Amino acid sequence: MSNLAKKLLNRSLRKARVRAKVNGTAERPRLSVTISNMHVSAQLIDDATGATLAAATTVGTKISGTMTEKCAAIGTDIAKKAKKVKINAVVFDRNGRQYAGRLQALAEAARKEGLEF
């Protein structure tokens, strides 16, 4: 097994382990974060109905700076959108990623805007 295949397999196993424990409801939706090499996206998902309540992404926007700065901007944006739909508490789904660096910047920016998790 190549190193890349092993890395992807380990990440998918971590993701499944996290998702088995994290479940969003209408009162406390799941904040799912996806970070690629170029873009960042975050969604508030109600798992009971399978509906996306709010979303924020860098795709198609003119947010510039480092990836950490983009993550912080998306964290602020998703928190503001959550307040518009009257959500102030979420369950954080890190999608198998380690809570450090870019993911931490997004989470801290969302917390600074008043989102609780």
TrEMBL record:
Pfam families, alphabetized: Ribosomal_L18p
Keyword match Translocase: no
GO cellular component: ribosome
Record key words, sorted: Ribonucleoprotein, Ribosomal protein, RNA-binding, rRNA-binding
Family, as annotated: Belongs to the universal ribosomal protein uL18 family.
Subunit annotation: Part of the 50S ribosomal subunit; part of the 5S rRNA/L5/L18/L25 subcomplex. Contacts the 5S and 23S rRNAs.
Functional note: This is one of the proteins that bind and probably mediate the attachment of the 5S RNA into the large ribosomal subunit, where it forms part of the central protuberance.
Listed name of the protein: Large ribosomal subunit protein uL18
Organism: Candidatus Southlakia epibionticum
